[in-house]
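Suppose a colleague, Dr. K., hands you the sequence of a protein chain of 171 amino acids and asks what its three-dimensional shape might be. Before reaching for any lab equipment, you can write down a predicted structure in token form. Begin with the sequence itself:
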Amino acid sequence: MKPERLIRKYSNRRLYDTSGSRHVTLDDLRQLVVAGEKIKVVDDKSGEDLTRSVLLQIIAEQEQFGLPVLGCELLEMIIRFNGGPMQALLTSYLEQAFSAMLRQQEAMQSEMAKALQMPFGPLTELARKSMEAWEQMQTATRNAFGGSAAETSGAANKDEAKPRGDSKKGT
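The predicted structure, expressed as tokens, is then:
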């Protein structure tokens, strides 16, 4: 796993990416997180970990200007749970739910990528199975309607397998 990307927050509220050696915005940090990067935001003077508050700030900005993910009812429920005896349960539940959803999304993307790489793969498999079924049906039909012919040819094959020297003894 990649190490956390260290972001320093200065007293003037500017954010500095120490890995990229440049100043960044909240949107830059959002893009890093979306890309799967782990970030750690620390106060430049005190060294205090500000990651959580910066991530909440990113979410608040997205909710305000973008398409909201957290509706009012959900936010009210989170506020009700916060500080209550069920807070730890809610935290654990939400983490597990989002983890499961991300795993499902990754699995779906993987399957879609496979389908796009071999778009005719499923059709090829279907055609192969259809041909096998067709051959089985033909064999069954031949055996059903030409059973005596098949048995006769089987008997003829058995006669051919016998040595011919035995038939000369009688002459």
